[in-house]
Amino acid sequence: MSQATVLRPNHTDEAASVRSAMVQRPALSRHKVQSIAPSERQDAKAIACAVVHHLNGKPTEALNALLEVTPEFQTADFWAALGYIQSELGNHSAAAQAYSELVLKEPDAAEGWFQWGYCLYKQGRAAAALERFEKAASLKSDWIQIPLARAACHLSLKQHPAAFEHADECLRMNASYLPALFTKAVAFHVTSELEQAAALYRQVLELDPAYAEALMNLVTLGLQRKQYDEVRRYSEQLVAIQPDNTLAIEGIATAAFYTDDFENAWRRYTRLIELAPDQVSNWLNLGVASEKRGHAARCRPGFREGTRNSSGFLVRA
């Protein structure tokens, strides 16, 4: 029988799986209860209830209160609040609609254009989001979140030179701005400039040792380069802050397997199956690790379940 090979899930080998920077959203600040006229008492009550619910971490109740506001009082501040809360609830399409209403009422509201772009980005519409971010940039050139958002869009669109340009624009504003450092690292990573990517990920971790996305990308990078000591080190750091992170557990398992620590690999693949029972490679790898431990009987369930789940996928060992 030839030497067994661990079959890692595809996501660890694809550059496209690198965790990218997320567009950051500013805090809700626009609606102002004190500006409501006494004649609008019912609307004032609805807005006040929405604010209280928002401050108490109850976005659903805040949304329900806002929906009681009459059309006559649906001001720019109302649409800003509605858009923010819809976005907070993950209703990004409804939030985008609210922000489009906001900029109709206040065309020079940079925050409205930015938030509209954020909602479009969250829907996977990077090109449309980029247009809104560019409009926001024309209105507010010193807001560091705008070039960061533009860099994230350019990364999604595989426009890497522009992504580097906007990440560097952020860093000229603040050389220690972690999201920009991370975004530039991602740009290096997806363009296969792996040494530069690793150096920037490590710089991020020097500033924030718990920056999980940087740890995840260092694990992915180590798997790509088959540097299993690095994989183990960053996976263990990641597990320390996210015990059920499947990429970290997979990284420890893979590193253990390739350094002949089959007992540890078996334990980690068993844990991965508990967390992701439908992932075919976890079952297959459990079978391989069981076999390498000399437990032929225990390897059969892994191979059998892996083959069944993968619709006839054949394992070579």
- CATH topological fold name of the largest domain: Serine Threonine Protein Phosphatase 5, Tetratricopeptide repeat
The ordered H/E elements are HHHHHHHHHHHHHHHH
Q: Which radius of gyration do the C-alpha atoms yield?
A: 24 Å
Report how far the terminal alpha carbons are from each other. 7 Å
Main structural class: mainly alpha
CATH class of the largest domain: Mainly Alpha
The total of helices stands at 16
Average pLDDT, rounded to a whole number, is 81
In the CATH hierarchy, what is the architecture of the largest domain at level 2? Answer: Alpha Horseshoe
Topology:
Elements: H1 41-55, H2 59-66, H3 76-88, H4 92-105, H5 110-122, H6 126-139, H7 145-156, H8 160-173, H9 178-190, H10 194-207, H11 212-225, H12 228-241, H13 246-258, H14 262-275, H15 280-292, H16 296-309
Helix pairs in contact: 1-2, 2-3, 3-4, 3-5, 4-5, 5-6, 6-7, 7-8, 7-9, 8-9, 9-10, 10-11, 11-12, 11-13, 12-13, 13-14, 14-15, 15-16
Task: Identify the notable features of this structure and list them briefly.
317 residues; mainly alpha; Serine Threonine Protein Phosphatase 5, Tetratricopeptide repeat; 3 domains; globular; disordered C terminus
Describe what this molecule looks like in 3D:
α4 (92-105) runs antiparallel to α5 (110-122), α7 (145-156) packs parallel to α9 (178-190) and α13 (246-258) packs antiparallel against α14 (262-275). The radius of gyration is 24 Å and the shape is globular. It folds into 3 domains: 12-20 and 147-259, Serine Threonine Protein Phosphatase 5, Tetratricopeptide repeat (Alpha Horseshoe); 31-143, Serine Threonine Protein Phosphatase 5, Tetratricopeptide repeat, CATH 1.25.40.10; 261-317, Tetratricopeptide repeat domain (Serine Threonine Protein Phosphatase 5, Tetratricopeptide repeat), CATH 1.25.40.10. The N and C termini lie close together (7 Å). The relative contact order is 0.09. The chain is an all-alpha fold. The chain has helices at 41-55, 59-66, 76-88, 92-105, 110-122, 126-139, 145-156, 160-173, 178-190, 194-207, 212-225, 228-241, 246-258, 262-275, 280-292, 296-309. Helix content is 67%, strand content 0%.
